[in-house]
Structure formats: C-alpha cells, structure tokens
Design brief:
globular; 78% helix; mainly alpha; Rhopdopsin 7-helix transmembrane proteins; transmembrane helix; transmembrane
Length: 245
C-alpha cells in the first residue's frame, strides 16, 4: 500500500492489544518480585510478552508497505508468538494437574495433553505457512484454508481446557469429600481460585473463536460482525493473564 494509506499504529486495535500484553508483562514481573519465581508465577509474563510481540508484528506484517520478505518474516514470528500466547495459557492447569495427579491418571493426562499440544503446533505451522504465501503473492487465496485450520486449532485448545477443567473439578470435589491434604507450596490455593474462572472463560473463548474465525474473509481485518466478535474474544484472551497473577 502507499505510504499515505498506511494507518497510524495507535489508531489500530493491534496497538491496544499489544499494550495490554506489555502492561501485563510488567505487572507479572512485579508479582514475581513480591511472591518469588515459580512455574505458575512466570507463565502470565511469558504469554503476555508473546501477546505484545504478536500484535505489534501483526501491524507491521499486514498494514505497512515494508518489503515483502520483512513482512513475511514478521508474520511468521507473529504466528509463533500467538502460539505461545494461546497454547501457553493451557500450561497453567497443566502445572497444577502434573503435580496433583498420580500413577495412571497422570500418565493418561500427560499423553492426552501433549498429543493435543502437538496437534495445535502442527496446525499453527500450517497457518503461518499459508499466511506467508498470501503475503508473498499479495492475495487472500489461502484465507479459506487458514479459516478451516483455525477451527481445528481453537477447538483443540478448547478441548485441552475442557479436559483440564474437568479434572480440576473432580479433584476439587475429592478434596471437599475426603479432606485431602496437599503440599504447602500454595498450589491448592491457586487451584481453588482458578477452577471456576477457567471454566467460565478460556473454554468458552476457545469455542467462540473456533466459530467466529471461520467467517474471516480478509487477513487480520475485523470487517464483519463475526470478525469483530472474534476480536472481542481475542481481547478476553489478552486480558486473562491478569487473573492468573
């Protein structure tokens, strides 16, 4: 596009989403400084940093008139960062269940979790490849395939969250009924606080995005009602790390 047609960065929603990720990253590091470093405490900062990077590069790749190789590279890195952000949220419940489950239940959960993570990774690799092809040809020829891949991508994330939430709910019921005593590292407190929030948000967000993204017609453009709903759902994803801190 011509230089005069390039939209101002801070007039775009991507700048707001990137700023949310940046602010959440700094808040996450402040929480770590207060509570100490752990797998649970570092995760919000990691996914928030990925959010900030992905949305900033999305603007560079799809809204500027920079050379195609640079825009293709930015698109690839943005997709990798989105993978870290969106799939990374699932590692919150993963760390809890990996510590709480025992024997066959733990092995079954680990096999299911990593199998779904592999599916999510492969789908994202296909998505980033098709997006790079569209940028190289300056068309939206692959957008239909990208939409279909996103259905599987978000559905897989929703399945991971649903399974994790279901297991967390079972453990919560077992705790109330048998008064199981867990370790003193704070994981049970984190578990109780996050279970209902996870059921009410991430599972629904994953399902909503699987539905709304299928109607996307232009790359990274919110130019219809469904694409605006998808942008709203993604905004909820960007805000979610704050409740994990």
């Amino acid at each position: 596009m011509a230089s005069s047609d390039v939209p101002v960065y801070f007039e775009m929603s991507w700048s707001i989403l990137s700023t949310i990720g940046l602010v959440n990253t700094f808040i996450g590091f402040m929480v770590i400084a207060i509570t100490g470093l752990s797998g649970l405490s570092i995760l919000p900062s990691i996914v928030s940093a990925a959010c900030a990077l992905a949305n900033g590069l999305c603007y560079y790749a799809y809204y500027t008139d920079c050379p195609k190789p640079a825009r293709m590279g930015a698109s690839v890195v943005a997709d990798i960062a989105w993978e870290i952000q969106e799939a990374g949220l699932s590692f919150y419940s993963y760390q809890m269940l990996n510590s709480l489950l025992r024997h066959k239940a733990r092995i079954t959960f680990l096999c299911l979790f990593w199998a779904l993570m592999l599916v999510i990774l492969l789908l994202r690799v296909c998505i980033l490849a098709f997006r790079a092809m569209d940028i190289s040809t300056a068309t939206n020829a692959m957008q239909g395939r990208i939409d279909h891949l996103h259905i599987g991508y978000f559905a897989a994330i929703a399945i991971v969250e649903s399974c994790s939430s279901f297991l967390l709910r079972i453990l919560l019921s077992a705790h109330h009924s048998s008064k199981i005593v867990f370790s003193r590292d704070g994981i049970w407190r984190q578990l109780i606080r996050s279970t209902e929030i996870r059921l009410a948000t991430l599972c629904l967000v994953g399902i909503l995005r699987a539905i709304t993204y299928s109607f996307q017609t232009d790359a990274q453009m919110a130019n219809s009602v469904t694409s605006q709903l998808d942008r709203f759902a993604y905004t909820l994803e960007c805000l979610f790390p704050i409740v994990m801190m």
